[in-house]
Structure formats: C-alpha cells, structure tokens
C-alpha cells in the first residue's frame, strides 16, 4: 500500500528574541494596571458596577492591552466556552455563518449546532472561492480557525481576515493552538474577536478568553452576569502568572520541533519513512513509519517516559513529550494514515530525548505486525512487547555503559 504524507504549510513561529520581548511587554502591561500588593490579593463575586471580581476585570484589561484590543472577557469553559460566548453574543438561530470547507473541531461543531446557525462553507485555500462567498452579501459574520483544519491547508489566516474585512464581514477567530505561538493572533490581524483557552497556556482548568471589539465583549459580559459563571479573581491571577513564561516556552518548543524534524528527515531513526511539521491541532510533528504500527507507538513510547495521550494540549500538566494518534479531523481526508503516522509534540523536552524515545519504541515494535500483535515467535515481557534480552552482559554484575538520554533507566529496564 502506498501511503504518503501530504505537503503541509506550517504557520509561522516566534523567534526566541521576539518571545523574550513579548514576555517583557506583558510584564509592562501588568505593571500599568496592578499595584504590587494586588498581585498577591484576589477578590470574588459579582462586584456592583462591574458584574465580576475587580481582579478579574484588571486581568482582562491587561490582556486586552497586550493583544492590542479594546476589551476582553474571561469566561468559564476554556476555549470551547470562549467560542460559544463570542458566537452566542452576535448570532441568532438561522443566521448564516461563513466557515472554511473543512472538518470542524468537534466541540465547535456542538456549539454551532446548539446555536442553530446556518454554516455556509467556502474553501479558504481558494481565494476566488472565498471572494465569491464574500461578494454574495449573505454574511455578517465569518468564523476562522487559526490552526489548520486540514493537514494540507495552505491559506494565510491574515489574508482571509483582510478579505472579510474588505467585504464588510466581521470575524471571530478560534485562536486555540495559535495564540502566543504565531507572531500575531486573530485580533492582532484585524479580527473582531479572538477566542482561546488559557488552560492550553498553562493556566487553570476551565478558563478561556474572548478578546476584541468592545461591543462584542460587552455582550459577553452582559450574558454572563451570574455569580457562578464568573472567573474568580484567584483564577484570573493564576492565568496571568502562567502567561508570564508562555511566550519563551512556546518559542523554545517550536525550535525543538524543527530540530527533531530535520534529524528525522536525515535518517537518524530507523523505521521513520517521512516527517512533516504541521499545525494539527497544536504545532507538532507528523511521523510516517515504514510499517503500519503507529497505533502501538504511544504505549511503547510511554515505557520510556512519553505521554501517551493529551490533557489539554500544552496544559500545565503536560511536560513529557507527547506521542499520540492523528486527530480525527486530520484523518478525514486520509484515513489510511492512522496505521502509519504518529503525532509527536516535544512539550518541554529537548530533541535528544524525543528521538531517543522514538528509536526505543520502534525497536521494541520490530516484531509487531500491522495489527499491533507480537509475531508468534516473539517472547514478550509483562510490561510490553519487548523481547527479553539474553546475553552474558545481561547476567553480569557489572553494569553496562549508558549512552542515552534515559541514563540509568537503561540498566533498570534492560533497554
């Protein structure tokens, strides 16, 4: 069977020097709106006149200023809640909404169905098709996902937003997986609103942000008057503290991903046939193997310290490199890739560790067939599909040399 990865068009990244400058600029915004003691204090509840905690409102002001927007609203429900709040603020049931002709992120699909809007597709990769849709005069609003929806998406989100703006169509951008990773997020590119999860930016669980036009953000606040729906002050401060190190962390992660891709493409790991950098959903590596054992790789890699599934895609819980399957939406165009391709995100790890884990995982799977089962003659250990080594060195009391990123674990687990 001939399986190939499609050509990908990764979104631009932020250079380390620029990320450091962004971190410093964020702290300048913080200093303009917080006195020192206020960073250690937080209130709660529906404060009269504000409708939310004072600390929360202050953090919103900081984030709006940092992203160059008039206003911001912290909301519960993480990225999905932010998208739901923004779309619900401007659309009624039956309203037409222009979207990209591509699989919609599953939770976004639930939101769109719940709102009862009429989604109308146009291929954003085809500028002529986009222009025809915009010229129809049907749309007041368009919804743009910044990260790629299809593996082979090639459009420039900034150009899509500019075309919408020129046609008088307002825009809401799903900036999950993109904000702080690309030079400019949707609202910085001229969108009316950006929506994203702060949980994906090392913040507390369940906190999202809508940032953009004052009228839209005002409606979000008006609809969220309930005390139980507020992002409380301590949550807002927690999210702000986390953001202070995110720009540099994401820049380093992007740089590590590029190094891994270059080394894999150079043939450093046997069993790797092809590699692509792609923004599906987060910026990651798509690694096509020379055998259809991709479904078994996450568990094999987990034995050597990799995370076999995500928590929030770069949440505070995720420090180990992620070895995972391709997303369902990414597989819609090429379902055959499921058996051949693994998705890798280095998270906080360096290239050496990621490559070492991949090499070891593929070595352990050398006697596994395409269905993830061991070959009949291959003995297995209780903990994995690893043939038990039999050698004089293995029974010797003298420890063997260690030459990997795992150090003494080689001796403890037999490699």
What does this structure look like?
The structure is a single chain. By secondary structure, the chain is an alpha/beta fold. It folds into 2 domains: 34-244, Type I PLP-dependent aspartate aminotransferase-like (Major domain) (Aspartate Aminotransferase, domain 2); 251-413, Aspartate Aminotransferase, domain 1. Helices cover 35% and strands 14% of the residues. It has helices spanning 16-33, 54-66, 78-90, 106-115, 127-135, 157-166, 214-223, 233-243, 246-265, 297-302, 328-331, 351-364, 392-395, 409-413; strands at residues 71-76, 96-100, 118-122, 141-145, 170-174, 193-197, 207-212, 272-279, 283-289, 322-324, 341-345. The strands form 2 sheets. It has a 7-stranded mixed beta sheet with strand order 1-7-6-5-4-2-3, sandwiched between helices. Strand 4 (141-145), helix 6 (157-166) and strand 5 form a beta-alpha-beta unit. Helix 1 (16-33) runs antiparallel to helix 2 (54-66) and helix 9 (246-265) packs across helix 12. The longest helix is centred in the middle third of the chain and has 20 residues, at 246-265. The radius of gyration is 24 Å and the shape is globular.
């Amino acid at each position: 069977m001939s399986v190939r990865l499609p050509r990908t068009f990764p979104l631009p990244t932020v250079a380390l020097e620029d990320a450091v400058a962004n971190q410093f600029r964020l702290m300048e915004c913080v200093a303009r709106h917080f006195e020192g003691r206020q960073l250690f204090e937080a209130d709660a509840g529906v404060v009269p006149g504000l409708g939310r905690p004072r600390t929360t409102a202050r953090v919103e002001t900081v984030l709006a200023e940092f992203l160059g927007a008039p206003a911001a609203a912290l909301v519960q429900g993480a990225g999905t809640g932010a998208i739901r709040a923004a779309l619900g603020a401007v659309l009624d049931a039956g309203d037409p909404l222009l979207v990209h002709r591509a699989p919609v992120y599953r939770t976004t699909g639930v939101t769109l169905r719940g709102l009862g809007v009429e989604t109308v597709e146009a291929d954003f990769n085809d500028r002529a098709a986009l222009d025809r849709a915009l010229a129809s005069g049907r749309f007041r609003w368009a919804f743009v996902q910044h990260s790629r929806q299809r593996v082979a998406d090639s459009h420039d989100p900034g150009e899509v937003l500019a075309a919408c703006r020129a046609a008088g169509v307002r825009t809401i951008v799903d900036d999950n997986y993109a904000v702080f990773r690309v030079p400019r997020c949707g609202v910085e590119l001229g969108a009316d609103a950006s929506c994203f999860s702060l949980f994906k930016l090392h913040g507390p669980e369940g906190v999202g942000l809508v940032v953009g036009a004052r009228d839209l953000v005002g409606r979000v606040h008006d609809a969220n008057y309930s005390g139980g729906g507020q992002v409380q002050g301590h949550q807002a401060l927690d999210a702000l503290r986390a953001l202070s190190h995110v720009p540099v962390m994401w820049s380093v992660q992007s740089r590590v991903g590029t190094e891994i891709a270059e080394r894999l493409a150079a043939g450093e790991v046997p069993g790797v046939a092809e590699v692509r950098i792609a923004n599906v959903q987060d910026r990651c590596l798509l690694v096509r193997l020379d055998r259809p054992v991709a479904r078994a790789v996450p568990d094999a890699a987990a034995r050597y310290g990799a995370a076999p599934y995500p928590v929030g895609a770069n949440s505070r819980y995720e420090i180990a490199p992620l070895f995972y399957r391709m997303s369902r939406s990414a597989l819609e165009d090429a379902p055959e890739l499921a058996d051949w391709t693994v998705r890798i995100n280095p998270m906080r790890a360096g290239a050496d560790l990621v490559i070492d884990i991949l090499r070891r995982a593929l070595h352990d799977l050398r006697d596994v067939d395409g269905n993830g089962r061991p070959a009949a003659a291959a003995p297995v250990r209780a903990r994995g599909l690893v043939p038990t080594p039999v050698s004089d060195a293995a029974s010797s009391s003298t420890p063997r040399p260690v030459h990997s990123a795992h150090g003494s674990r080689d001796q403890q687990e037999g490699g």
